[in-house]
C-alpha cells in the first residue's frame, strides 16, 4: 500500500514509519519535515496534498496538539486551538480524503489514554479524544464500503521523556507495541474501531 504518515517525523510517527516501511511504500507528512508538506489545520493544505498524491491507499495521522491547562485557565482561544488542531484536523483529513482519494482508502487516526484516564490539565485532551472515538465509530459506519476509518489510542509511550513526570504510577507502553497497533488498524479488514494500547494502566 502507499501510505502517508502525517506526523511521521514525530515520536510515535517515527516508530510507525519504521515498521510500515518494511512492507509498504511510506511517505512522511508534516508542516516542516517530510516528503509531503501538509498542515492539518488548513483544509486548503490538505486538499493540495491529496490532489498531489491521488494514488494514496492510506493516511495515518500521528499528529495533534491540545492545550494542557486546568479548567479555570483555559481560554476561548485554547479551546478553539485544541478543537481545530487535534479534533478537526483529523476529521477534515477523513472528510476530504473520502472525497478526493480512491475508493477503499484507509484512515487511521490518533487519540490517547486521556479519553479514559484523567491527569491534571488534561480536560481538553480528554474531551478531544472522546470526540475522536465518537467520530471514528460514526464515520466507520457511514463510509462502509467506500473507506475504512480506525482510531489508535496509545498509552504514555515509554521512551518519550517529555511526559515522564505527567503520568505517575501509569504503565508505559513501548513504541513497538504502539507501532504494531497502527499496522493492525491499517491492515485488519475492520472499520470504526478504537484500538487502545494500554492493556493495564496501573502498575
Ligand atoms: N507521545 C505519547 O506518549 C503519546 C501518548 C498518547 C497519545 N499521543 C498522541 O499521539 C499524537 C502524536 O504524538 P507524538 O508525541 O508522537 O507527537 P510529536 O513527537 O510532537 O510529533 C508530532 C508530529 O506532527 C507533526 N505536526 C505537528 N503539527 C502538525 C500540523 N498542524 N499538521 C501536520 N503535521 C503536524 C510534526 O511535524 P512538523 O513540525 O513538521 O509539522 C511532528 O512530526 C498526538 O496526538 C498525541 O496526543 C502521544
Structural notes for this entry:
- The chain has one domain (2-197): NAD(P)-binding Rossmann-like Domain (Rossmann fold, 3-Layer(aba) Sandwich).
- α2 packs parallel to α3 and α3 (76-100) packs parallel to α4.
- With 203 residues, the protein is an alpha/beta fold.
- The mean pLDDT is 96.
- α4 links the parallel β5 (105-110) and β6.
- The chain has a 7-stranded parallel β-sheet with strand order 3-2-1-4-5-6-7, with helices on both faces.
- The protein is globular and about 45 Å long.
- It has helices at 11-20, 43-52, 76-100, 123-142, 175-187, and strands spanning 2-6, 25-30, 36-37, 58-61, 105-110, 147-154, 194-197.
- The chain is built from 5 helices and 7 strands.
- The protein binds NADP nicotinamide-adenine-dinucleotide phosphate (NAP).
- The site of NADP nicotinamide-adenine-dinucleotide phosphate has 27 residues, from α1.
Could you list the spans in which at least 5 consecutive residues all have pLDDT below 50?
none
SSE pattern, N- to C-terminal: EHEEHEHEHEHE
Per CATH, what is the topology?
A: Rossmann fold
Shape: globular
List the helices and strands and how they pair.
Elements: E1 2-6, H1 11-20, E2 25-30, E3 36-37, H2 43-52, E4 58-61, H3 76-100, E5 105-110, H4 123-142, E6 147-154, H5 175-187, E7 194-197
Parallel strand pairs: 1-2, 1-4, 2-3, 4-5, 5-6, 6-7
Helix pairs in contact: 1-5, 2-3, 3-4
NADP nicotinamide-adenine-dinucleotide phosphate is lined by residues 6-7, 9-13, 30-33, 38-41, 62-64, 86, 110, 112-113, 154, 156-157, 160, 163.
